[in-house]
Amino acid sequence: MKKPYEHLFNGVCCVFLDLSFFGLPDIYPDFIGYLFFAYGIHLLPSFHNLKRWSKNFAIILAVLSFFVELDQWLGYKMLGEIGVQFIQFVFIVFMYVVFQLLLHIHKNKPLEAKTFKTYQKFIAFMLCGFVIQSFSINIDASMRENVHFIGYVLQLLAYFFFLFYFRACHKYYKEINENKVPSLK
Predict the structure, then answer these.
(1) CA 154 to the chain's CA centroid
(2) DSSP label at 154?
(3) Which of 5, 86, 91, 125 has the least C-beta neighbours within 10 A?
């Protein structure tokens, strides 16, 4: 059986994890995470326009993040911090669209309330972390790391809310599929 929530979970992990060791490129590049998102969205049970929009949005983000990652891998740093901040902002807009799709899919189901609560918390924490990190550029260099850390912690909380939500979705749909009447062959 195809499991869209596992692909969405893998996408979140690839986007959030930044494992760069000894000056080597990121082991889990963000563009691979966005491709996981696109495939997971493709597998979701919906024919709404939001599905097409969010899948196309994920592909656009994959291309944009590829160029940002390539810029960092090659050491040019032409896009620098502004490129990373732009991708973060577009990611927040993307997650808004994904949550709207999930709210449509879970309408009148037990997961609707959990989807809405997670959506509110995720967007609030991500936006707060984004704003803090964006304006940390204007802060004295001695305080910049501390301010960045606060932004990262807020975004980490948002990702944890998202991961717990996907765990609940996966568990819910697994129970539904196990309780189905087996077909006669």
Answers:
(1) 14
(2) H
(3) 86
